[in-house]
Amino acid sequence: MTNKTKIALVTGSSRGLGKNTALALAKKGVDVIVTYHRSEAEANSVVSTIAELGGKATALQLDTSNTKTFDGFVAQVKQSLQDKWQTEQFDFLVNNAGTGVHASFAETTEEDFDYMMNIHVKGVFFLTQKLLPLIKDGGRIVNLSSGLARSALPGYAAYGSAKGAIEVLTRYMAKELGQRQIAVNVIAPGAIETDFQGGVVRDNPELNRFIASQTALGRVGLPDDIGGAIALLLSEENRWVNAQRIEVSGGQFL
After folding, report:
1. 153-180 pLDDT, tens per residue?
2. Which residues does 214 contact at the CB level (< 8 Å), separation at least 6?
3. Sign of dihedral through CA atoms 81, 84, 90, 95?
4. CA dist., res. 9 & res. 58, Å (int)
5. Which residues are catalytic?
6. Do residues 230 and 21 lie in contact, with contact meaning Cβ atoms separated by under 8 Å?
7. Which of 81, 123, 135, 193 qualifies as a cystine partner to 202, CB 3.0-4.6 A?
8. Measured CA distances, 146 to 31, 33, 39, 53, 134 (Å)
9. Cα–Cα–Cα angle for 160, 117, 7, nearest 5°?
10. Are 113 and 214 in contact (CB under 8 A)?
11. How many CB atoms within 10 Å of residue 88?
């Protein structure tokens, strides 16, 4: 049985930008495999919302910082595709899961550094590698970077460096997966009002005002600004966009 509906796997989609992306895709008729690290209840809530929108979704646990769990996760994805969609492959992978560490360059610990690299670089590298057999030829991959890979804000050296690595990796993936007609792009959000980093941008009025003052469109970003952009990038009309870094920041730090 061939499944006509497109299916996206969005990592870290129980909350924040990942959740927003999952819902934006669902509104465009794309079904979603939601992944969560700890918040199963929140992930199930996203699944329910997608069902209310008329789509299908399932939630799977995933720790993107631990490559040893990836084989088990891939097996679960295979099973879910079979059980829920009667198919063997999905169309879109969005490598969104992540967190940040805020520390000056001088005070960043090796543990902090390793954690950032494991989640944002090693995890993305090897999870994508292991999922390749399950991604359809002609499918698409979107990696998540950050405006902090382009402009340096003190306190984010490890995080920004990891995101810089993802931007380079995106080009290599696009080059090597092109033979399978898989396009790979990277979206770089600016500062967004979410619970990322404990809600620092959302809940710190001084920081919020500063970022807004340094953004051409005069405000800090909202999750809706990002999820919709990713869903649009994955639309059929954008299939020729490949190996690009697309910053979605309202014109931040120009």
Report:
1. 899 999 999 999 999 999 999 999 999 9
2. 252, 253
3. negative
4. 10
5. 159
6. yes
7. 193
8. 26, 23, 24, 30, 27
9. 95
10. no
11. 12
Burial class of 226 by CB neighbour count within 10 A (0 to 12, 13 to 18, 19+): buried
What DSSP string runs through 66-98? -GGGHHHHHHHHHHHHHHHHS-S-EEEEEE---
Which residue, 47, 52, 36, 94, is CA-closest to 229? 94
Query: What homologous superfamily is domain 7-248 in, according to CATH?
Result: NAD(P)-binding Rossmann-like Domain (3.40.50.720)
* Calpha distance 211→227 (Å, rounded): 20
The strand pairing partners of 103, in sequence order, are 156
What distance lies between CA 18 and its chain's CA centroid?
A: 6
**Type of residue at 155:** G
Gyration radius of the chain's alpha carbons? 17
